[in-house]
Amino acid sequence: IPYTKYVSLPVGSFVKIKGTPARCFSTNPQLQVDFHTGTETCTDIAFHFRVYFDNCVVMNSRQRGNWGEEVKSTDKPFKDGQPFELGILVLSTEYQVPYTKYVSLSAGTFVKIKGTFVMPFNMNPELQVDFHTEAEGNTNIAFHFRVYCDYYVKMNSRQCGNWEEEVRTSVISFEDGQPFELGILVLSNEYQVIVNGCQCYTFPHRLDPASVKMVRVWRDVSLTSVTVT
Fold it and tell me: Rounded to 5 degrees, what are φ and ψ at 27?
């Protein structure tokens, strides 16, 4: 029986779904989330999100019984046999499913994120990158990097649910209206942050980077790629 919940979704709403695939990925289990405009299944669907766990993710909308243009991604952030946490953020222009990638970090690991901000800087778009110690969003964060494009950059860590001492800088190395390449290099004593080829920020280790299990990238960005080498 599909789970249903009656909601109101203003800008800034965040829908969090936790679960576990009922079957192994070789049998191609699926997950479907639909945001209906009415209380019946035949109503318009503002956002349709469907995961074919061993294949792809499909997103779409439906109006007056007709499906719109399908958006498909072959990224596979879910792990076979493992619990997942799916988040959907309601922005002014789009729905955003935070990008997650399961990782193993050590000294020398380089995380590269390419993308574009979805709005001009005078509207204060944000970019957030979190290095989680477990595969869920409410776990410890070894490194938190958040950009408020027209204001400042802040870095922090979170342990046992508590944020620690924040490091903040007013130096903004991103360019309004331009694609960006953000790199995070794991060194033995700190994270080194590189923006568009220039080393811009550093943050000392407060938690062992080897404890990091998941990288999450989200907020007001359209991602081109996320790689870990």
Answer: -95, 5
Q: Containing domain of residue 110, as a range?
A: 100-228
Which residues have C-beta within 8 Å of that of residue 95, sequence separation ≥ 6? 35, 47, 49, 88, 89
227 contacts: CB under 8 Å, gap ≥ 6: 111, 112
Structure tokens at 124: 């204060």
Same domain as 129, residue 198: yes
Angle at 103 between CA 203 and CA 175, to 5 degrees: 50
- Report d(CA 153, CA 167) in Å as an integer: 8
37-89: pLDDT as tens digits: 999 889 999 999 999 998 889 999 999 999 999 998 887 778 888 888 888 98
Could you tell me how far CA 190 lies from the centroid of its own chain?
23
Helix (H) or strand (E) holding 187: none
Taking the C-alpha atoms of residue 72 and residue 62, their distance in angstroms, rounded to an integer, is: 15
Residue the block writes with tokens 């719109």:
68
Read out DSSP for 132-160? Answer: ESSSSTTS-EEEEEEEETTTEEEEEEEET
Q: At which of 59, 81, 97 does a domain end? A: 97
